[in-house]
Amino acid sequence: MRTTQVAMAIALLLSASAAAAQEGSRPKPSQTGTVSQEVASTKISLVYDRPVARGRDLFGALVKWGVPWTPGANWATTIELNKDVTIEGQPLNAGKYSIWAIPQEAEWTMIFSKEDHVFHTKFPEGKDALRVLVKPTSAQHMETLAWYFPVVGPDSAVLAMHWGATVVPLSIRISK
Fold this sequence. Notes:
Blueprint lengths: L1 H23 L6 E9 L2 E9 L22 E9 L3 E3 L2 E3 L2 E8 L5 E6 L14 E7 L2 E16 L3 E19 L2
Antiparallel strand pairs: 1-2, 2-3, 3-6, 4-5, 4-10, 6-7, 7-8, 9-10
């Protein structure tokens, strides 16, 4: 009788352990993405987790107007620059930053924070390296949030954040 109870206990433990291992191997709902671009000799790299729209109303609903939000999920989206650049005409030194946005219907404030490892709901007040104003545009629906470089020139590029029908373009120029 005792052997049967021990065998059952071991079987239950193994079953629970296998279930926990399988649970841990499930993919995150917002998968990690990366994008990088070299412009002249400057490397621009982003790491972000990609939320999915799944039929939800995005801006003004899920993402509130006037509230800081990282354009991504899980951990704040980061950008790393190996050289100084200007973004929307404003200087940003080489380094690694988290990216935040304060969306509004007509204009967004894009924030580059000196805090580069931040949970996505913990906006790092008072840690700004740069704030710029950008006008969003409309485009075809993008189900999964994406960052990409739709324009790359010899000394400049446009970095775009695109989710739903909203695109937020950032003009980047390489510092001389």
